[in-house]
Amino acid sequence: MNRRQVIVIGYGMAGARLADEIRARDPEGARVALTVVGAEAHPAYNRVLLSGVLAGGLDPGAVLLHEPDWADRSAVDLRVGVEATRVDRAARVVECSDGARLPYDAVVLATGSAPWLPPVEGLLDDDGRVASGVVAFRDLDDCARILAAARPGAPAVVLGGGLLGLEAARGLVARGSLVTVVHPVSHLMERQLDPGAGRVLADALERMGVEFRFGRVARRYVVGAEVELDDGARLPADLVVVSAGVRPATDLARDCGLVVERGVVVDDALRTSDPRIYALGDCAQHRGVVNGLVQPAWEQATVLADLLTGAVPGARYRGTPVVTKLKVRDIDLASLGEVHVELDEPGVEVLRVEDPTRGRYAKMVLRDNVIVGAILVGAPDAAATVVQLFDRGLPAPDDRLALLLGRALAAATAVSPADLPATTLVCRCNTVRKAQLVSAWDAGARGVAPLVSATRATTGCGTCHDLVNAIADWLAARKPAPA
């Protein structure tokens, strides 16, 4: 059988997962000759966990997705520190920064996204490079630069109060920096939270030492000295961390003539306007949506591996219901589905419970007795039940208040792992269900570490760690490992 030449451009979370999924279906490379080209010089890593590295809870080596010998063991031609500079569609060749010309039968764009720097005077030097003392928090090298620049007791300014900016702010505070977050909107994480939840979150972070300037933008940065805001206020800043949003990395696709809107446009088979070129992850736009989260990318990788190897020719990606979780120590936050819905909207039921003094906020949106959206801050018990109901589309219990207060056990959840349905989604980031953990255990993955290795559960945001441990304990009691 002639092997198909498949080139994956991008060795981030999406590209690495796709390579793993391809080799899971074609372990020896009998069907697919796989080449992965990555611009970063180190192995793929879990970008979701960078805030843990910044806060000091994780060593950088702990977030790596692959061992150094992974490529050799997996029959993958891995080229790190190499950038794909052009896709020649007519010749079917990928041109690289090291002069290599790689012929292909199929190309996958997994180029991710790049941080956006707002037009603030002083963020760039005269040569157009990021100025000294400024870091755009996006990758592992950025994390290292922040750690090298941060000092206990020294002032730092974070531009942007979105998910990543808040994780950076909390990480810097944990290392003793004096942090001020400048956010142009009146409340935090405005895409995922309503104003009430944003206020509760801000209060919780302020108690940890983070200060905020809402409704303000930076006007000028004086290197190593201060950030001047649009209202004339001056904030001392030895370090400026920029987290003002990202843009899909689409230059390569645009340059070779593919259809690009906000991202590289793909269909349900993840094909671009050229059927020999696919795209997934942060750079892809599917049904008008550009997802910047890990779970959609990894679900896309599963579908694309089925297609590229011929394992499931009918595989299609239909979209992912996204749950956003803030990975900040001492704060439990989940946002899912439709959250910007109010009481007067016809056909919906909206419930809200606020306890700002204790840092708790819960909002739930239902249609036809089914949860279609929720925000839960400081309510981990309620979040566990609500997320399961949302994932499975099950009817909500009649006692809505008990559900929001974390006192209701619904059919989607259970007291014991033994009672959880096999279809229960345990790890959202990796789409690992209870049945997969049981199967891995029965196949010899006896213990938490082997289960993690076999299924990747807990290797995304890590919030399913306790449930995976509970399931492992239940499995050990049910089927003790042989002596």
Automatic annotation (TrEMBL):
Domain NADH-rubredoxin oxidoreductase C-terminal: start-end pairs: 323-383
Cited PANTHER family: NITRITE REDUCTASE (NADH) LARGE SUBUNIT
Protein name, entry field: Assimilatory nitrate reductase electron transfer subunit
Domain FAD/NAD(P)-binding: 5-300
Gene3D superfamilies registered for this protein in UniProt: 3.30.390.30, BFD-like [2Fe-2S]-binding domain, FAD/NAD(P)-binding domain
Domain BFD-like [2Fe-2S]-binding, first and last residues per copy: 425-471
Organism expressing this protein natively: Saccharothrix australiensis
Family to which this protein belongs: Belongs to the nitrite and sulfite reductase 4Fe-4S domain family.
